């Protein structure tokens, strides 16, 4: 059987994952017919998805891994996942930040990657509840000589609060700090995203802090790789309709892109040709 050259490995694996989650399980022979690839290719794809922890291989096929809705991986564990996708997303999302604007960054490994790209955007005021994100800006503030602040360096405000396993600060202290502020744009990382549950997290206190972020922002930009689609945490904190732009990677299946487009105005797929990205524009201050 000839290989299907029209699909990149990441796109094919995204289709397989979507099929597994939608149907609750698939067989290898079904996938070979559907995707027009060899049995060996499908087995390699299933091996790769199993290593990512998103499926479980069973005899003759695969089933989805169902995590407890309260399971919250630590920052280091999440940092090793989807590295290239997070870099693509971070690069695309950074182009939406306007010099001199006030922005907020929530916690997460994708916003951590985004922070590094935002260092090149001058005169930002950055509010974050992420210890890791704050460290990125603080470490870059001083010029090579070590005297004074780097020209154009961001002004960074860390909210304070109780630290979560993902190194975010949450709780009443963080909530009160956010309530008194207003942002031009919020860059929001998520644990899970779906049409039914919207944006969700396994941490109840983090959900409340994220609600405060959403209320304080003029524009909401969600940054999340394709594996987050279909994941549902314990607590929802925003609907898809509240999101202005969803920045993701090219691994997101085409049918999922169409479904997302029914709920929010802007979908920016990092790695797609410019005319394939719909509705994304710089976040005006």
TrEMBL record:
Task: Using the record, list the residue span of the signal peptide; answer none if the entry has no such feature.
Answer: none
Q: Which InterPro entries match?
A: Carb_Metab_HTH_regulators, DeoR-like_C, DeoR_HTH, Tscrpt_reg_HTH_DeoR_CS
* Presence of the UniProt keyword Coiled coil in the record: no
Q: What is the lineage of its organism?
A: Bacteria, Bacillati, Actinomycetota, Actinomycetes, Kitasatosporales
- Give the species this sequence originates from: Streptomyces anulatus (Streptomyces chrysomallus)
Q: What range(s) does the HTH deoR-type domain occupy?
A: 9-64
Task: Supply the alphabetized keyword list.
Answer: DNA-binding, Transcription, Transcription regulation
Q: What is this protein called?
A: DeoR/GlpR family DNA-binding transcription regulator
Q: Does the keyword Transcription apply?
A: yes
- In the record, what terms sit under GO molecular function? DNA binding
Q: Where does this protein have coiled-coil stretches?
A: none
Write down the PANTHER family for this protein, in alphabetical order: AGA OPERON TRANSCRIPTIONAL REPRESSOR-RELATED (PTHR30363:SF44), HTH-TYPE TRANSCRIPTIONAL REGULATOR SRLR-RELATED (PTHR30363)
């Amino acid at each position: 059987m000839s290989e299907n050259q029209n699909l990149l490995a990441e796109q094919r694996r995204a289709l397989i994952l979507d099929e597994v989650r939608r149907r609750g399980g698939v067989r290898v022979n079904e996938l070979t017919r559907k995707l027009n690839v060899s049995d060996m290719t499908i087995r390699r794809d299933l091996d790769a998805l199993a290593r990512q922890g998103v499926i479980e291989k069973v005899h003759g096929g695969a089933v989805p891994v169902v995590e407890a809705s309260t399971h919250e991986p630590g920052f280091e564990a999440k940092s090793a996942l989807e590295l290239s996708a997070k870099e693509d997303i971070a690069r695309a999302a950074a182009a939406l930040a306007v010099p001199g604007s006030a922005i907020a960054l929530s916690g997460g490994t994708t916003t951590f990657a985004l922070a590094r790209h935002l260092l090149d955007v001058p005169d930002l005021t950055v509010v974050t509840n992420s210890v890791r994100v704050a460290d990125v800006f603080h470490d870059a503030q001083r010029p090579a000589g070590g005297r004074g602040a780097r020209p154009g360096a961001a002004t960074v405000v860390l909210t304070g609060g109780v630290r979560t396993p993902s190194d975010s600060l949450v709780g009443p202290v963080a909530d009160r700090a956010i309530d008194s502020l207003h942002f031009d744009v919020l860059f929001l990382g998520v644990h899970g995203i779906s049409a039914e549950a919207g944006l969700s997290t396994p941490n109840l206190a983090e959900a409340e802090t994220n609600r405060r972020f959403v209320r304080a922002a003029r524009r909401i930009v969600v940054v999340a790789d394709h594996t987050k689609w279909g994941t549902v945490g314990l607590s929802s904190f925003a609907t898809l309709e509240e999101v202005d732009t969803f920045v993701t990677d090219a691994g997101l299946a085409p049918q999922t892109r169409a479904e997302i487009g029914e709920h929010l105005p802007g979908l920016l797929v990092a790695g797609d040709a410019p005319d394939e990205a719909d509705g994304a524009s710089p976040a005006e201050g």
